[in-house]
Every structure is written in C-alpha cells, then in structure tokens.
Specification:
The protein is α+β, with helices and mostly antiparallel strands. It has two helices and nine strands. Helices cover 19% and strands 45% of the residues. Strand 6 and strand 7 form a beta hairpin. The two termini are 18 Å apart. The relative contact order is 0.30.
Length: 152
Amino acid sequence: MRIAIVSGNSEGPTELNAFDNALYEAEIGDVNLIKVSSMLEADTKIEKLPKLKAGSMVNCVLSSLTSSNKGEEITACVAVAIGEELGCVVETHGIDKDPEDIKDEAMKMVKYMMNKRNVKIKELIIEESHHTVENIGSAIAAVIYIKDDILE
C-alpha cells in the first residue's frame, strides 16, 4: 500500500470556497475524496503526492475545519503510525488550541490504536495545518491512498 500525507489552508468568500481552496493548496482539489476509516496494510510506504487524474475517486482520511469567526485559530491534523503487521491513521482538529497540543492528541490516539492491536510502531508521522481566520478560513490535513488508476 502507498500513501501520501498532505495539508493546506486558505481563505475564501464562502465556507465551501475556503474548504475547496485549502484542498487545492494541498494539491487534492481536483479529485473526489472518499473518506475511509483508519487502517493501513503492513509496511505501507509513504510517498510524495503524485499528480492525480482530475475527477478521480480518491480514498482518504481527512481532517478539516472551516470557520467564519474572524481571528479564530483553526488546526487540522492527521497522524500515521506504521508497523510490520499493519498501520493506523487518526484525524483530529481544534479551534483556538495550541497546534502542538493537537499534534500531541493525535500522537496519543494513534499510539493507543497500535498498542491496542499489539503492533510495534516502526514509523510515526504527524501532519498539521494551522490557520488564523481573516474572514472565512479552512485548514485541512489528509492521508491519501495512492492507487495506479488515480494517477495522471
């Protein structure tokens, strides 16, 4: 299994446009995202996001937060833990919280999931996107499941 971890944040004239702009900044704005749960195959490989075919149906774990409250600090975060037997992904987000606290929360959750399954973590990656809302803002972080049929 191959995955990419991406993030983005942006502003827009509406909540939908702000979210779309954050997706576009993360280079996943031209595909259809299908939210999946949090499991990875054994020895999953993390890659740089390749160019995706426009309109493709793309599986992902997505953390997103959009706000129209000027001055709010919004953070979206994903954490990936990979072991020899399997891997786990978590997503979380927060408003007006220290991004480091949100990353710590994600790390604790993914470590718990791996521990519950008695799987030793070989690799742990945390990705977050933080944004201060100017008018209408959005922050996203995502794990993209890469398959050959979605590549350009």
